[in-house]
Amino acid sequence: MKTLITQVGTYLTGDAIADAVLKYWLALAHEHHADVVDVPIVTTDGEPSRVRLALSGVSPIAVVDSNRPDEHTDEIAVAHLAARARAVTPRGSATFSPEEVEDANLEAHYWYGADLQPPPADDRFG
Q1: How far apart are CA 9 and CA 101, in angstroms?
Q2: Taking the CA atoms of the chain, what radius of gyration do you get in angstroms?
Q3: What is the DSSP string of 61-73?
Q4: Model's pTM, two decimal places?
Q5: How confident is the model at residue 106, as a pLDDT?
Q6: pLDDT band at 123; cut points 50, 70, 90
């Protein structure tokens, strides 16, 4: 079991659930997004319950291992959190192939000529 620690409380939950919440929080923080998620937890009485957490990069979250055995699982919640993390994570390559770079250079040369240099440092503002 792991404990989720937020600014508003601490919540005991299963290992996979806590890890999925943390991964989703990281994805949201990286993309400057926020969301509210429903997280399965275990109360102080040992009863299953749920908590709705607002996750964003401006709200820190921590995950701490507890001394209790991992008895709380919810595969549907883990899969749902993982899908939400994938949905906010950018896809595709941020790099260009050599052919794409060459095509861009040729097009720039066609439209703007060969003088694509920045102005001299002393002449930047006119």
Answers
A1: 50
A2: 24
A3: -EEEE-SS-----
A4: 0.69
A5: 63
A6: low
